[in-house]
């Protein structure tokens, strides 16, 4: 929206001011003239930065101020580029460790500021700053406004509401279901049509959850503006066949269509195709959805009327026009979002609230966005009226510019640091699921995060992420047991908004977006290229790329420019579903400023040894490559915080990586030395460790290996380690974790399914922060359940019972244990498991294995195993071991469990599986 300012300069300005402050420190001996020039730059730029922060909160800014702001933004970038360029000087490594690296860094900067060319460039840049300051005064550009600080809302858990709390969905959902359940046996296609933000996807999803169980197979897939049809077909195959996406067929489109048609031929299927933007995409997908006479149904959502009609014809379908919420439902949604109910709204705000609701025109997205904005305001009527007066009229007619005005108002209310972080999301393609941890690490590499209140940079980034969710500017995905979203998506309308602003301000240059036809004539600062949907033709010579700070590439092209041409990169993310040649990475070690490197391409099998030259690298993410051996030079990366791999062997010299906070995906093979296992224990900053253990049980020195690893792990859990996952490979020797002497007080997750405990060690009873536990026990006993049941924070428990020589006992979960547990899995042979009244009051998911031939006595005393007491249960999975049992015994178990489950108020989803049926007693 014209007039709403974007303070994107702060991304460069803040880091620049930090560097200028460092240059003025006592440890540098600057010539008086140079010191004076740098001090002048720092003071003048600090004043300019303060003005830029004010501009970020202005609603209307004239053209002169916009032009001045653009010049200051580019000036800040150029000054930082000047400093960074001269920091790139080869140097001898004369000492080791963090202190040694710091001294070398200081020496480099001393050499930088003493260089005559630097002094000359600083002088020229100072003249540009002076001219920018004079220009503002010359044209009498003034600003007068008050800024507003916004704190993080602690009520994040209230955002993740159940479908029962969605307002106004019942009637349209029931109407849609009636249209689907009309008894017709021929294929029927229904199109849900309406503008963006009206809730088409929500409606389709609610109907899907209600009736999908009636069909033989089902799928829910999103299409988007730039559809990858091959990927869409694979997703549908994965869902209708109920198999992992990675295991789906990988042939061409024609072959995938034939596979899907063959599978659906005699099936009653229910498929939702969400967000169709073109008839061509629909025609291709429809080829795979065989028209049969089994009563199959397809639902399509689109915001384009002609496409809605095209999809449902001639398949006996109809267009369902989704209407805006009524005034009553709009008020319920708005007040519930802010106050919990209308009754709790202060009387002095009622008239302003009513007007805000009216101007949202019944659009759920607009209502939620405005409600999220108003939660940050005080209860002063004047403040609410001021916001109300800022909203344009006309939403009743679904005019796109009015919706943009609504969203822009919420955007402009963001603090400047959140504006920068939100704009950065335009680097990702439409409908992309953005991993929270990857995003936070990219923000860190860009210098967008500042530590405050004693939090780490990662924790600060999570707060930024949660605040954007709180303001409904991003959509949470994959909510964990702790209530934290681990990923997000950006709604189409929000994405359109931030893309337009990011491109306008030369914050990001997008290539591959059909809406962005013009290539920037300015210096490219951040570049995102999407090669996936279509052939992208780029005129590299016409683009100024030498100062680009970020490069994200999705897909692959033979004409891709070598990444070594981007000398100023701080962040490099290469993601390809097809071949990405190793030769593209040969000179990656020349990117001296690189902080973040992610490579997601299965064709990559090795890295060049020069990668050890990336002395500023903080994140190296290779989880989606096929690299099994890392270059030895990796241990030179003394600032590396996150090393994420996919089965790569544990490095020799890993102890040199003292800054590591996360080491994930590493493997320990027979070839690993005992020195590397010992050095692992010296990584005292490590918070997350995920490794796979492949040391064979046939080794003569296996006891030495296991003792050293157990000792190293004991050192780590006694310092800062929070998350420990160990997967034991087939035939690998056990690890004696029971030998730990110090209690792991900080450990939150212990996932060691391959490590067998004969008893619960003493240190496990003191784990007050543990919320996820997975262990193997020989066998699971009542005593073990009693001990683990008193862990105060335990939310997720997986016990794998190893068979014992003694007869199995009946296990009972008492009402005094597992007060917080939400997920419980018990695998392995047990006689039976019963639940007392009041036991596991918060249990949502339960998976158990029962041996039918030994369960008769259990069902005699507890006909339903106490399942009727589990009122919070949502998912129940039961594996019945049929070995040694009669068919009647198995059916008794199944009937008892089914009967108890049917009585529960939540109507849990029940899955019963029979194992070892070939060992069932005949007759």
UniProtKB/TrEMBL annotation:
Chain ranges of the Disease resistance N-terminal domain: 12-96
Gene3D superfamilies linked: 1.20.5.4130, Helical domain of apoptotic protease-activating factors, P-loop containing nucleotide triphosphate hydrolases, Ribonuclease Inhibitor, Winged helix-like DNA-binding domain superfamily/Winged helix DNA-binding domain
Disease resistance R13L4/SHOC-2-like LRR domain span: 547-910
GO molecular function: ADP binding
Record-annotated Disease resistance protein winged helix domain positions: 427-498
Keywords noted in UniProt: Coiled coil, Leucine-rich repeat, Nucleotide-binding, Plant defense, Repeat
Protein's recorded name: AAA+ ATPase domain-containing protein
Native organism: Paspalum vaginatum
């Amino acid at each position: 929206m014209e007039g709403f300012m974007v303070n994107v300069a702060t991304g460069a300005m803040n880091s620049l001011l930090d560097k200028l402050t460092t240059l003025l420190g006592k440890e540098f001996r600057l010539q008086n003239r140079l010191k004076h020039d740098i001090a002048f730059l720092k003071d003048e730029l600090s004043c300019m930065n303060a003005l830029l922060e004010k501009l970020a909160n202005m609603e209307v800014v004239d053209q002169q101020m916009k032009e001045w702001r653009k010049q200051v933004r580019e000036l800040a970038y150029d000054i930082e580029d000047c400093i960074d360029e001269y920091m790139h000087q080869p140097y001898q490594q004369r000492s080791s460790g963090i202190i040694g690296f710091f001294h070398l860094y200081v020496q480099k900067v001393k050499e930088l500021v003493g260089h005559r060319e630097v002094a000359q460039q600083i002088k020229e840049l100072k003249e540009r700053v002076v001219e920018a300051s004079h220009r503002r005064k010359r044209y009498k550009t003034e600003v007068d406004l008050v800024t507003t600080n916004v704190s993080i809302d602690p009520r994040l858990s209230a955002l993740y509401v159940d479908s029962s709390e969605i307002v106004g969905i019942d009637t349209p959902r029931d109407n849609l279901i009636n249209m689907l359940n009309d008894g017709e046996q021929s294929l029927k296609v229904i199109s849900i049509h309406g503008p963006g933000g009206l809730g088409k996807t929500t409606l389709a999803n609610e109907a899907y959850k209600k009736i999908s169980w009636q069909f033989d197979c089902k799928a829910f897939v999103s299409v988007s503006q730039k559809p990858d049809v091959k990927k869409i077909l694979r997703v549908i195959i994965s869902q209708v066949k109920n198999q992992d996406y990675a295991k789906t067929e990988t042939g061409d489109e024609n072959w995938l269509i034939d596979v899907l048609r063959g599978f659906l031929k005699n099936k009653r299927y229910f498929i939702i195709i969400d967000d169709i933007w073109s008839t061509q995409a629909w025609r291709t997908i429809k080829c795979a959805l065989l028209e049969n006479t089994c009563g199959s149904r397809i639902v399509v959502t689109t915001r384009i009327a002609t496409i809605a009609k095209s999809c449902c014809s001639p398949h006996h379908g109809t267009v369902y026009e989704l209407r805006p919420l009524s005034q009553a439902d709009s008020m319920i949604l708005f007040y519930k979002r802010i106050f919990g109910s209308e009754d709790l709204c202060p009387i002095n705000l009622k008239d302003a609230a009513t007007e805000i609701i009216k101007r949202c025109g019944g659009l759920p997205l607009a209502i939620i966005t405005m409600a999220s904005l108003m939660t940050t305001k005080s209860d002063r009527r004047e403040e609410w009226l001021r916001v109300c007066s800022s909203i344009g009229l006309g939403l009743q007619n679904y005019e796109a510019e009015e919706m943009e005005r609504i969203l822009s108002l919420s955007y402009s209310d963001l603090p400047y640091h959140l504006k920068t972080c939100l704009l950065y999301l335009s680097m990702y393609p439409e409908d992309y699921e953005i991993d929270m941890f990857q995003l936070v690490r990219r923000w860190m590499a860009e210098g967008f995060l500042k530590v405050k209140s004693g939090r780490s940079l990662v924790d600060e980034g999570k707060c930024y992420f949660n605040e954007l969710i709180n303001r409904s500017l991003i959509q949470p995905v994959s909510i964990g047991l702790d209530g934290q979203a681990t990923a997000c998506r950006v709604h189409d309308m929000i994405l359109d908004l931030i893309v337009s602003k990011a491109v306008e301000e030369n914050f990001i240059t997008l290539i591959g977006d059909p809406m962005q036809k013009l290539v920037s004539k300015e210096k490219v600062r951040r570049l995102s290229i999407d090669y996936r949907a279509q052939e992208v033709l780029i005129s590299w010579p016409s683009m100024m790329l030498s100062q680009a700070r970020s490069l994200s590439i999705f897909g692959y092209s033979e004409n891709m420019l070598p990444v070594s041409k981007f000398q100023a990169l701080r962040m490099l993310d290469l993601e390809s579903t097809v071949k990405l040649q190793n030769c593209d990475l040969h000179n990656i070690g020349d990117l001296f400023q690189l902080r973040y490197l992610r490579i997601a391409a299965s064709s990559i099998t090795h890295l060049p040894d020069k990668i050890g030259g990336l002395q500023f690298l903080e994140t190296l993410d290779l989880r989606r490559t096929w690299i099994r051996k890392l270059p030895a030079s990796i241990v030179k990366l003394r600032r590396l915080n996150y090393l994420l791999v996919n089965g790569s062997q544990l490095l020799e010299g890993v102890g040199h990586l003292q800054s590591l906070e996360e080491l994930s995906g590493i493997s320990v093979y027979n070839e690993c030395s005992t020195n590397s296992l010992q050095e692992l224990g010296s990584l005292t900053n490590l918070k997350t460790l995920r490794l796979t253990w492949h040391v064979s049980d046939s080794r003569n020195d296996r006891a030495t290996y296991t003792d050293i690893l157990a000792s190293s792990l004991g050192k780590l859990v006694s310092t800062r380690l929070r998350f420990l996952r160990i997967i034991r490979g087939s035939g690998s020797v056990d690890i004696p974790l029971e030998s730990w002497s110090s209690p792991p007080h900080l450990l939150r997750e212990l996932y060691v399914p391959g490590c067998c405990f004969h008893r619960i060690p003493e240190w496990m009873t003191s784990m007050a922060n543990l919320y996820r536990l997975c262990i193997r026990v020989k066998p699971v006993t009542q005593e073990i359940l009693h001990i683990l049941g008193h862990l105060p924070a335990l939310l997720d428990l997986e016990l794998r019972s190893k068979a014992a020589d003694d007869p199995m006992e009946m296990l009972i979960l008492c009402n005094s244990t597992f007060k917080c547990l939400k997920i419980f899995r018990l695998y392995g042979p047990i006689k039976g498991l019963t639940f007392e009244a009041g036991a596991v009051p918060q249990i949502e998911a339960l998976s158990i294995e029962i041996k039918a031939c030994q369960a008769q006595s259990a069902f005699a005393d507890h006909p339903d195993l106490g399942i009727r007491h589990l009122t919070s249960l949502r998912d129940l999975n039961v594996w019945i071991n049929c070995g040694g049992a009669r068919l009647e015994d198995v059916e008794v178990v199944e009937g008892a469990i089914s009967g108890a489950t049917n009585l529960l108020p939540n109507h849990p989803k029940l899955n019963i599986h029979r194992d070892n049926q070939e060992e069932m007693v005949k007759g």
